[in-house]
Design goal:
- With 565 residues, the protein is α+β, with helices and mostly antiparallel strands.
- It has a domain of 251 residues: Roll (Dipeptide-binding Protein, domain 3).
- Helix content is 24%, strand content 20%.
- It is built from 16 helices and 21 strands.
- Strands 1, 7, 8, 9, 10, 11, 12, 16, 17, 18 and 19 form an eleven-stranded mixed sheet that branches. A three-stranded antiparallel sheet has the order 4-6-5, with helices on one face.
- Strand 5 and strand 6 form a beta hairpin.
- The radius of gyration is 23 Å and the shape is globular.
- It starts with a helix and ends with a strand.
Length: 565
């Protein structure tokens, strides 16, 4: 089976909201809480999920993925395929036809010039775009008329759906962002905090790391939607407080990412005011291992790149020992219960792309100690190993969250059993996952030895996701500290194999290449330590209708369909 037949079978029409809609703005206010507070409303300047999803209420891509991972049109009339002629026979271009009825929230028409501008904006080398991997292989965009967008690729691209599909690459309005190109991108506060969009809501006021107030877009394409006149988006606090605010106190209507122990969630739900929803997608909680030296004595450029390899984590024996010491089954049981699955893979879903490795499932403290003995790390009287005068001591950072701190505590204990001294640091999620280039505490800068987090990818094809680890994609000063290769891994063999993936249309071969790339990152090199395949867990008020959990795109993908029961 090839990609053409898969896509032809996958493209479906959106299922819009029930007939109980009384009309736009008739259901008052809806309140959403994300305990990781948004810091910007421009996902091109932050790849934090909190920023991507809050932005999705306002700015939209050409197409999205629905709850089943199938592509659905948003700003276009249909999904281009080989079968309908939208993808060229040589697979070097894809043509999107904009819906001529769609206008921006200020009433001006959406045109192909906006799409081309967004590409130019992201690809400006001085702009620090956070999602350049979505445009890998693109040579340029043609706009033969106001409604036609032709994306060109350097080589045949059997999967041409990276650019502008999914919440990570929405369309920006050229008229608004024209003076925000390159180095000016980060300075455009008014634009980044209040983008003009085509989505169901528009921004009235945005207080970074706190509150966003929105009103219904009176130029939204469906005259009966959204049902809510206003939207309050609250950021900050913690997962416990967010869950309670929906399921116990009823203060909010929707709470995202309830990263809580299963018994805590069950107790909240028993209060009767809210409903828990779960969806398994591609999210994997993992420990990234820094391949560069994070020492503060080095300049920023050296700390960001491979000019100075990590003094001991560059040794695969040390990295493998850290992995062997961890009991993933116990971690997942304590942290997530049935809402998580222990995993050895970065790509844990969908199943056809997953290696489904089991090599890491059994904790092996003895094996880890043996590896370190053979690597010349000698156990000291204080229980910490040393080699050539260097202590085996790591700084382990993550965001502040009860489950993550439980993970940290257990991992620190196990690493202590193999002679690894571990200092724990937890940082506010709004800062850790923010895109502030001046902050030393972002996960992109990675000023620690190891760090733990989860991210995911739009849709069901991991091509762009696996492109994160290509050489040159690391965050660095010249890119305003944006970039996807967080652990600074670089292997020319990996790059070559990924290039093969971009050219491969046969689905069985794509599955095998993706699995091999996954294995190169995990069980071959141990540059990251996958822990738990996490289900997306959220809660909504029982009075809120139309909510459809989606783990393949923004959870807020169909907010225009929400209504008050």
């Amino acid at each position: 089976m090839n990609l053409k037949s898969i896509l032809l079978g996958a493209v479906v029409a959106l299922a819009f909201a029930p007939a109980s809609f009384a009309g736009r703005g008739t259901d008052g206010e809806v309140k959403i809480i994300y305990w990781q507070a948004p810091s910007i409303l421009n996902p091109y300047l932050s790849n934090g999920t909190k920023d991507i999803e809050s932005s999705s209420l306002i700015i939209e891509p050409l197409a999205r993925y629905n709850q089943d991972g199938a592509m659905v049109p948003y700003l276009v009339t249909s999904i281009p395929t080989l079968g309908n002629g939208g993808v060229s026979a040589d697979q070097k271009s894809i043509t999107w036809n904009l819906d001529p009825a769609i206008v921006w929230s200020d009433g001006t028409p959406l045109t192909s010039a906006d799409v081309k501008f967004t590409y130019d904006y992201c690809m400006d080398p001085n702009g620090g775009c956070a999602n350049t991997v979505k445009f890998n292989g693109v040579t340029g965009i043609d706009t033969p008329d106001a409604s036609t967008v032709v994306i060109n690729f350097a080589e045949a691209s059997p999967n041409p759906y990276g650019p502008f599909v999914g919440g990570q690459t929405p369309i920006l309005q050229k008229a608004q962002f024209a003076d925000c190109m390159g180095a000016k991108a980060q300075t455009c506060t008014a634009e980044n905090f209040g983008p003009v969009g085509t989505g169901p809501f528009k921004v009235v006021d945005f207080k970074p790391n706190d509150v966003i107030r929105m009103v219904a877009n009176d130029n939204y394409r469906d005259p009966n939607k959204p049902a809510f006149a206003t939207l309050l988006f609250k950021g900050g606090g913690d997962a416990t407080g967010a869950g309670r605010s929906v399921m116990e106190t009823g203060e909010f209507d929707y709470a995202w990412n309830l990263q809580l122990a299963p018994d805590v969630i069950a107790k909240m739900e028993s209060a009767g005011k809210g409903t828990v929803i779960v969806g398994f997608g591609p999210s994997v909680e993992r420990i990234e291992i820094n391949m560069t030296d994070p020492s503060p004595s080095l300049d920023a450029d050296t700390r960001a790149t491979r000019k100075a390899p990590h003094p001991f984590l560059s040794d695969i024996r040390v990295r493998k020992a850290l992995s062997l010491a961890i009991d993933r089954v116990l971690l997942t049981e304590i942290g997530y219960g049935q809402m998580g699955k222990p995993t050895c893979d970065l790509v844990a879903g969908p199943a056809v792309y997953s290696s489904q490795n089991t090599h890491c499932m059994k904790q092996d403290i003895a094996g880890a100690n043996n590896l370190l003995d053979n690597a010349g790390w000698v156990m000291g009287s204080d229980g910490v190993r040393t080699k050539d005068g260097m202590r085996l001591s790591v700084l382990y950072q993550t965001s502040t969250n009860a489950v993550r701190q439980d993970y940290q505590a257990l991992v620190k204990q196990w690493w202590g059993e193999i002679g690894v001294e571990t200092e724990l640091r937890n940082l506010s999620a709004s800062i850790f996952f923010g895109g502030d280039p001046s902050s030393p505490d972002t996960f992109q800068k990675f000023y620690s030895d190891v760090e733990m987090y989860t991210n995911n990818f739009d849709g069901t094809d991991p091509q762009s996701y696996l492109a994160m680890y290509l050489c040159g994609n690391e965050p660095k000063p010249e890119s305003q500290w944006q970039g996807e290769n967080i652990n600074r891994y670089c292997d020319i063999a990996y790059d070559a194999l990924h290039a093969e993936l971009t050219r491969t249309g046969d689905m069985e071969k794509r599955y095998e290449i993706a699995k091999r790339l996954n294995d190169m990152l995990t069980k071959d090199s141990y540059t990251m330590i996958p822990l738990t395949h996490r289900g997306g867990v959220a809660a909504h008020a029982k009075s809120l209708g139309g909510v459809v959990m989606n783990s393949w795109d923004s959870e807020l993908w169909n907010v225009s369909d929400w209504y008050r029961k």
